[in-house]
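so im writing up the methods section and need the Polyprenyl synthetase family protein record in one place, dumping it here so i stop losing it
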Amino acid sequence: MVDPVLSEVVQVGLAEVERNLHDVVQSEFHPVTETSLHLVEAGGKRIRPLFTLLASQFGADWDREKVIKAATVVELTHLATLYHDDVMDEATMRRGAVSANVKWDNSIAILTGDFLFAHASRLTADLGTDAARIIAETFSVLVTGQMRETVGPQPGEDPISHYLRVIEEKTGVLIATAARFGGMFSDATDEQTDALRRYAEVIGAAFQISDDVIDIASPSAQSGKTPGTDLREGVKTLPMLYALADPSETRLVELLAGPIHDDALVDEALELLRRSSGMDKARETLDEYADRARTELGKLPPCPARDALEELATYCVARSR
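--- predicted struct ---
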């Protein structure tokens, strides 16, 4: 964000959200506070609150209290899903820290996620019945996406279409709600709020595709992540699904049959994937998503916030190149 006024608005707003996150998880029962603060204090990009704050700049008059509260709600909801995800994935680390399910146990992690969901609902009640309905619908889609991913493609269903549907439900929907709230509580028009929602839904899914590519393409020194994490966990991401659809990739079909634990085989699979048509097609899909996002931005009035959102779309593509 090159605009200093917008930058100040966002930084101050994110600081308020951070304080809210710390305040809302306080409990008279100390273990609840301790486990709830575990991921709050582990940090994170706070992407969802960022979208709420940026989207709030399109209306004629943004309600600061409601915008900050809405931004807190979406981040609390996101944090709650992370506790549950780590249990389902049997994760050991989250944001550089030992995951809650390992530090305590699965039951504590699940209960902590429930506690955060409860407080997100409590805060949403202050935002009105429309906001309460929207967050309930969002939660329903989040759960459906997780269930869809867990069950896997149905017989005869295209695995690529299934995967794109999953990331739209698991990732795109909450970011879309974050932007929708920003528009709602700033007196943006219905058309502008809808454009913000659609933009955020598409760009949220695009960031997941970008992560999929980075997990394969980027060395750890460049990305800050250990490449091949998805391979080790047996997760078939978009580049892999595209590669598996290529009849010439017989060795990859063999390697991707399940989780890969041998480092040499992980390196082999990464090298094959980097040269595969799957990577090219995944990047093409990413470009398409970014173009769709920019189309929605074209329906919004020119302003520093729109410039910032356009930069996000550009960054989403550039980071995976």
